[in-house]
Amino acid sequence: MTDKELYDKAEEAMLFSYSPYSNYKIGAAVLTKCGKVFTGCNIENASYGATICGERTALVKAISEGNKEFEAIAIAGSDESVPSFPCGICRQFIFEFGSDIRIILKERGKLKTYTISELLPKGFKL
Ligand SMILES: [Zn+2]
After folding, report:
1. N or C terminus of the chain: which is more exposed, having fewer CB within 10 Å?
2. Is 11 annotated in the active site?
């Protein structure tokens, strides 16, 4: 699967976003090392702390179905003027499952790729 194909799946997942408070929709698609794709979107809550990001939704779906090895995660946001970098919690959440997982997102209209280690240098590991 190409980065573009994975990103397209993230954009599709964005359609299911529940984001009445921020109006900022996020979709994510995670690619496992064995080639499966799991998607997720951000799901907000009136109790803001209960909100979950799209990246973690996708990863939770994958992990809860027995997948723990990931190649890449694509993240699409509804406001393309702002790159949809993962938040700090998501960076740590992704890092837990591998320091070389690729993060694919759009910056100035073009797909860009980072490793999670670039976005979270010296991530926390037990
Ligand atoms: Zn997040």
Report:
1. C
2. no
List per-residue pLDDT tens for the chain, 126 residues long: 999 999 999 999 999 999 999 999 999 999 999 999 999 999 999 999 999 999 999 999 999 999 999 999 999 999 989 999 999 999 999 999 999 999 999 999 999 999 999 999 999 999
Residue at 104: amino acid letter: I
Q: What is the CATH number of the domain that holds 70?
A: 3.40.140.10
Q: Considering Cα of 13, then 69, then 122, then 3, what sign does the dihedral take?
A: negative
Task: State the catalytic residue, choosing from 11, 12, 55, 118.
Answer: 55
Provide the residue range defining the domain that includes 109. 3-119
- 126 domain residue, yes or no: no
Q: Ligand 1 mean position to 51 CA, how many Å?
A: 9
- Count Cα atoms within 13 angstroms, Cβ side, for 97: 25
